[in-house]
Each structure stands twice: as structure tokens, then as C-alpha cells.
Amino acid sequence: MNLAIRDIRYHRGRFILTSIGLGLLLGVVMSMGGIYRGLFADALAVIDSTRADIWVVQQNTNGPFAESSRIPEDIKYRIKAVPGVAEASPLSFQTIQIDRSGKPFRFFLIGYDLNGFGGPPEIVAGRGVRQKHYEMVAAKAMKMAIGEKIRLGLHDYTVVGITGKVVSSGGDPAAYVTLADAQDIQFKKDNSAIRNDRERIGENLGAIQALAPAQTKYLKQNIAGITESTHTVNTVVARLAPGANLQEVQERISRWNHFRPISVEEQTKILTKGMIEKARMQLGLFRAILLVISAVIIALIIYTSTLDKIKVIATLKLIGSQNRVIVGMILQQSLLMGVIAYGIGYLLILMTYEKFPRRIVLDAFDLQALFVIVVAICIISSFVGIRKALKVEPAEALGG
Amino acid sequence: MYAIEIEKLTKVYGKGETAVTAIADATFQIKPGELVAILGPSGSGKTTLLTAIGLINEPTHGKVVIDGATVADGGWLPGIDLKRLRREKLGFIFQAHNLIPFLTALENVMIALEINHLSRSEAKSRATELLGALNLGHRLNNFPSALSGGEAQRVAIARALANKPKVILADEPTAALDTENGKNVMILLKKLALENHSAILVVTHDHRMVEGFDRIFHVDDGRITGEKNNSGGSVNHELG
Ligand SMILES: Nc1ncnc2c1ncn2[C@@H]1O[C@H](COP(=O)(O)OP(=O)(O)OP(=O)(O)O)[C@@H](O)[C@H]1O
Ligand SMILES: [Mg+2]
User: Fold this and answer.
1) A322 contacts in B (CB within 8 Å)?
2) d(CA B76, CA B187)
3) 3-class DSSP state of A189
4) Which of the residues A35, A78, A244, B164 has an alpha carbon 20 to 30 A from that of B148?
């Protein structure tokens, strides 16, 4: 006869409530693991969807995500010419936060070359960007409708397509526009600023008496052109030809002195080790604390339920029960509670994880490891109850 | 061979100045099938005597022999499996029925059989049969909280009898019952002593309950002060 199940059956209300409570706690532990995995997936989402082998960024920076990096757009031609490089494409990234119907609306704007790569990895509705200007593909999470317009910088952009789950390393959903548009939004000065600049250049040049008027005009046009140029990008990504040697290509680009070619492995490391390491440790610490709390709660529940059963245990000893009957009852109860709570927590997270504001990735290994930990906690926690039970004297069955 | 034999049994609780001698130099033998009562005022040592014989209260001095096996001789003998002796040779009945609250009447009896290595089905049929014989056939699946005092006590009796013990020990089995139910329980115990050939030792306060017992011991202040047999004669012990 299984005494553990019989006792639970009799006190089922209490047992179910306790299991649900513990289940919620374990659900939180699971979601923390999921958030951690989600952080990873988010951090690497752009890298993964770009499928580049090398990220060329400004020298001495860990760009373009961990640090800012600015390089001239036309470097793409030189990179493309490096032996072993099959394709090279410039990209620009910026975080945008605007007001949309009274609420802050944040997203990650990616500008890409329509003739290159690094654009939306998939189109789930509508179409990709086709026109050179003022079209946008938005991630599903932005909850924008096709045809919707949004004002960025000096122009309105129309959403023409929806892409899947691309987010910035900060978890903001991504939107795609052409590189030229992105550069406009990021670098273009407004008209009064341009006017001011031009006047200042004119005045400065006018002050140089030695210049002939034709020279002044020529210089003025050139200088204004440079100050108004938006042909800057954050990175140029490159894909290698089959069989090309990554290190050789990297060495070659490094030799130009102004750029740092970061391999995709290094870029991954920069993002995971640098940017999300603290968040990871924080989540890890939280998980550990919650597990300790679960252990204490299980131990307390088992201990008090053992205290409730002192008379029962004494009676069992009196009628000659073996210790294993009593130990089994306590241990099985503890394990049952842990396993049921785990199941409740799992169901809970399974039903809700898609509704979390940030991505939750449920990893099978994490879940299995947690299961093993919960079982271990149940076994260890039941020791306090078992110790108490083994000390009960059969004579205690006699009292009242 | 006696079912119960005790010799110069003494139990002292505590040490030094606070020591209490609860039972002193008790000696008697009880044959299988004998129905024996222990009478005495509160605090006289009746429960102490019963629990020492019941192998749940270690004697300070003296000998306890159950069904021919010496269990204690100035403390438990080393290597004695008290639990095993309790489940195989002894049955207990208490004032408060001591049923396990989360088991049904049937399961309360079955558990005693199962810990004595009977299979589930054997335990079930034997428990059903026993409870039926005690007029509890209609209460098999009730929890103790749903049983009347008399019914609960009969379930406890069924549990005590389940393993056909050589010795049944009852500590005020009728105290929580009304006179009617109390008498019925005593009648039942007498019947069982005859049928099962078990020695039954019953502690009680109540003189009216001991009618028809084979022998009656009087205990006062830890000493057995008198013994009556059913012939009505009185024997006075002066021990120690
Ligand atoms: N565990 C114990 N520790 C110390 N003293 C005890 C203990 N149990 C009993 N005593 C003492 O031993 C004496 C005999 O107690 P016992 O319980 O055997 O009496 P009793 O005859 O069963 O009384 P009652 O009729 O009230 O049940 C009493 O003085 C009691 O206070
Ligand atoms: Mg007593």
C-alpha cells in the first residue's frame, strides 16, 4: 500500500495548492532560463540573419553592435576586390525611438544595399523593399500593417512587407530600409543647418583675399559636398568564396590600417561574452536564489507535514513497520510534490512564453537539468523530515 | 510455554532526585488464551507495565519473555528485532483508537498485514473478513473521522488481531466509549481470547468491565498488590 499517495489523496486540497505554489516558482526559474537563452538568440539574431563571414568595422572598435563604428561606404569596392571575397555589402544600424499614438515606439533600423545582402531574412507578408526610397520592411513584433506610414527624419516611410523575428541585441524589433534612406535618416542635416553651414563656409572662404571668385565658388561647392555627404556606413559585411582562407582575407584587410575585419566567431563572442555577460550572471544568480528558496520551501513543507504525522509515524512503528515504509512515505511525497510542481511550472511556461515581451527560448537541456535539480532538492529536503521521523518513539502513539 | 512472562520487572523514569519508579519488581506469567485485567488508580504504573511488555518502553531491570523468547533482561537484549516481534507477536489497542486518519477502515487493517509481508490481495481478503466478523462490513471504505467511537475501536481491534498475535495488549480500550459500547468491546475481547488462543492483557480503571476475566491484577504505586482469579479467591503478593 502506498502511504504517500494515500496521505496526499486525503489532504488533496492542501497538496494541490502547495504544488501550484511551487509550480509557479519553478515556472519562474524556467522562464529565467528561457530569458537567458532568449538574450543569446536576440543578441545573435542580426548576425545570424546576415550570414556574413567577416564584419569589417572601424579600426580599434568592437563594432558595429557593441561599439559604434563608422567607415566610408565605398570601402565595399576594395573589400570585394580582395581575393577570396565573394560578396561585400554595406550595412547601417541605428536605434530609433519615436512617439507613435502617444507611446514610445522603439525599433532597430537596418539600412542595406538592395543589390547586396543583409536585408530581411524572410518576408512573411507583403513584399521586400523595391523602390530606392521611402519603403520599409518591418518585423512582425512592431505590429505594423502593410501600407502604414511612419515619419522618420525628413520623410514618410511606407511599410511594404513584414519580416519574422529579427531583433537588435537589446531586443528591439528590426525594420529594414534602403541604405541610402538609412544614411539620410542617420546623417542628413535639416535644411536650416545646411543653410547655416553653407553660409559659414562662404564667409570663411570670402575672407581669403588671395582666392579668385571662381576658385571660391569651386571650393565652396566641394567643402559643402563633403560636409553634407551621408556616404558613411557602420560596417561592410563580406561573404567568402568557397575554399577561401578566412585568416588570409582578414590579414589582407587589416593591412590597410583603417579597418578591423571581425570574423563571425569573434563577433559572436563580442556580443555574448561582452554585451550580455552581466545579464547572464544576473539571471543565473536569480535562478540559484529561486532554487534555494524552492529547496527551503520544500523542506519546510515536508518537515511540517512530518510533524503533522508524528502520531501516524509512531503508530506505524508501534505496529512494527519497517523504517523503509516510513522513509518511503516521506520521500515519495517530497518527490511527488516536486515532480507535480515541475509539471505545473512547465505547463505554465509552455502556455505563456510566447506572450513575454522579450524572447523566451526553452532549451531541452536546461529543462532536463532543472528536472534533475528539482529531484535532488526534493531528496535532500526530505532528509529533515526523515530525520525527525526516525527519531519518533513508538510510545508516542499512546498519548491522547 | 507462557505467552507473557515477566520477572522482577522494574522501570525507573529519569535519574537522580527526579527519578520516578513507575513499576517495581513485577513478576507474573500469562498463559496463551488467558484474559487478564490490570486495575489500578491513575499514575499507578499500568501503562508503564503494558508498554514494557509491548516492547516500546525499555525496562530498567528485570526480564521480559514473549512467547518463549527472552526480549529484555535488564534492558533490551542486544540483537533483538523489536519491530519484528511487535508485528508478528503483539497486537495493540488503545484508549484513543490510533487509526491512521488518511487510511480507510479497510486500509488501516491491511497496512498491518502488508508490513508483515502479506500480499495486497491476501491482506485485502483477510482484512475484509475480519472487519466483516466485527460487524463493519458496511464501513470498509470509511475514513476514521467518519466512524463512531465504537466502530473505530472495533477497527483498531481488527488491526490488532490481523496478524493473529500471541499477545494482545489493550490500554483502556473502553475509556472513550459509552457503557454499552464499552461492554461490547470487552465481550468481543473475551470471545477473541477464546477463539484465537491469544493472551489478552487489558488495562482499565473500570471494575464493571472486568467481569468474566480469568485473572485480575491490582497495581498501586508501581507494585502489584493483589491478584484475583475467576474463582473469586484473592491472593496477596508482597514482592521485593
Ligand atoms: N515518560 C515518562 N517520563 C517520566 N515519568 C513518567 C513517564 N511516563 C510515566 N511516568 C510516571 O510514571 C508513573 C506511572 O505512569 P503510568 O502512565 O504508567 O500510569 P498509569 O497507571 O497508566 O496512569 P493512568 O491511569 O493515568 O493512565 C506516573 O507517576 C507517571 O508520572
Ligand atoms: Mg495509563
Assistant:
1) 83, 115
2) 34
3) coil
4) B164
Indicate which of A9, A15, A309, A398 best probes the interface with B, i.e. most B CBs within 10 Å of its own CB: A398
Q: What is the CA radius of gyration of chain A?
A: 32
Write out the three cell numbers for B192.
477473541
Ligand 1 atom 5: the closest Cα is on which residue? B13
Give the residue ranges of DSSP H helices in chain A: 3-10, 12-43, 45-50, 75-81, 179-187, 191-206, 213-228, 246-254, 264-269, 277-308, 310-318, 323-352, 364-391
pTM for the model stands at: 0.81
**B9 in contact with A at a CB cutoff of 8 Å?**
no
The domain limits of chain A are: 3-42+277-398, 45-274
CB contacts of A7 in chain B (<8 Å) are 102
The CA distance from B61 to B146, in Å, is: 43
- Shortest Cα–Cα distance, B92 to chain A (Å): 7
Residues B138, B175: Cα–Cα separation, whole Å: 25
Q: Is B120 exposed, middle or buried (0-12, 13-18, 19+ CB in 10 A)?
A: exposed
Which uninterrupted H or E stretch holds B63? strand B61-66
**Is B13 within 8 Å of chain A by CB?**
no
Nearest Cβ partner of A320 from B51, B87, B120? B87
Q: Which of the 8 DSSP states describes residue B214?
A: S
User: Could you list the mean pLDDT of each consecutive 10-residue stretch along chain A, which spans 400 residues?
Assistant: 93 93 93 88 90 94 90 93 94 92 92 93 93 93 92 91 88 93 82 80 81 82 76 93 94 92 93 82 89 88 90 94 94 94 95 88 92 93 93 84
For the domain made up of B4-234, the CATH class stated in words is: alpha beta
Cell numbers for A59, please give them. 579600426
Residue nearest to atom 31 of ligand 1 (CA): B43
Map out the domains of chain B as residue ranges. Answer: 4-234
Mutation to probe ligand 1, out of B12, B18, B47 (largest number of atoms < 8 A from CB): B47
Atom number in ligand 1 closest to CA A395: 1
